């Protein structure tokens, strides 16, 4: 939602724990954000909001973590682990906040800390192609349109 002329935003005691990325959208005139009495979780999920506030240092705010720490006083080095630019997932995996760190959320049959592992990596098909069986997720070899455990040379 665009609210180009909004200057003051008061959200006191709304039991807000998480603030989604882009929650406040485009607010070019915002000068004050009152968030007192909201127990914000200051794990990695706070990183987008923290970054947004740091980039807009002209906005006065009293936003605090549930432990009483001001969001704007959180230090960059402590949040570096939460920076999505520091998270590298392979094979279509996405970085997601997992408590106080980022983790890769893998798709398909990819696993491992960085979505780099597949049952096909350790499955020798000889001269065939490995694929993942969609029903049970096991590695199978495909040789000339039929499924076998190993494809000898042609």
Automatic annotation (TrEMBL):
<dbReference type="InterPro" id="IPR001611">
    <property type="entry name" value="Leu-rich_rpt"/>
</dbReference>
<dbReference type="Pfam" id="PF13855">
    <property type="entry name" value="LRR_8"/>
</dbReference>
<keyword id="KW-0677">Repeat</keyword>
<keyword id="KW-1015">Disulfide bond</keyword>
<dbReference type="InterPro" id="IPR000742">
    <property type="entry name" value="EGF"/>
</dbReference>
<dbReference type="InterPro" id="IPR003591">
    <property type="entry name" value="Leu-rich_rpt_typical-subtyp"/>
</dbReference>
<protein>
    <recommendedName>
        <fullName>EGF-like domain-containing protein</fullName>
    </recommendedName>
</protein>
<feature type="disulfide bond">
    <location>
        <begin position="106"/>
        <end position="115"/>
    </location>
</feature>
<keyword id="KW-0245">EGF-like domain</keyword>
<feature type="domain" description="EGF-like">
    <location>
        <begin position="83"/>
        <end position="116"/>
    </location>
</feature>
<keyword id="KW-0433">Leucine-rich repeat</keyword>
<dbReference type="InterPro" id="IPR032675">
    <property type="entry name" value="LRR_dom_sf"/>
</dbReference>
């Amino acid at each position: 939602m665009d609210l180009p002329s909004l200057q003051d935003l008061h959200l006191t005691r709304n039991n807000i724990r998480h603030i989604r990325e882009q929650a406040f959208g485009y607010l070019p005139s915002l000068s004050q954000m009152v968030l007192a009495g909201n127990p914000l979780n200051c794990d990695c999920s706070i990183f987008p909001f923290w970054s947004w506030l740091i980039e807009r240092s002209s906005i006065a705010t009293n936003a605090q973590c549930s432990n009483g720490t001001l969001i704007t006083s959180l230090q960059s080095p402590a949040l570096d682990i939460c920076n999505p630019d520091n998270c590298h997932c392979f094979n279509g995996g996405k970085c997601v906040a997992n408590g106080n760190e980022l983790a890769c959320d893998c798709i398909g049959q990819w696993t491992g800390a960085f979505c780099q592992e597949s049952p096909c990596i350790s499955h020798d098909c000889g001269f065939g192609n490995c694929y993942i069986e969609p029903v049970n997720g096991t590695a199978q070899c495909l040789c000339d349109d039929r499924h076998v455990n190993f494809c000898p040379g042609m």
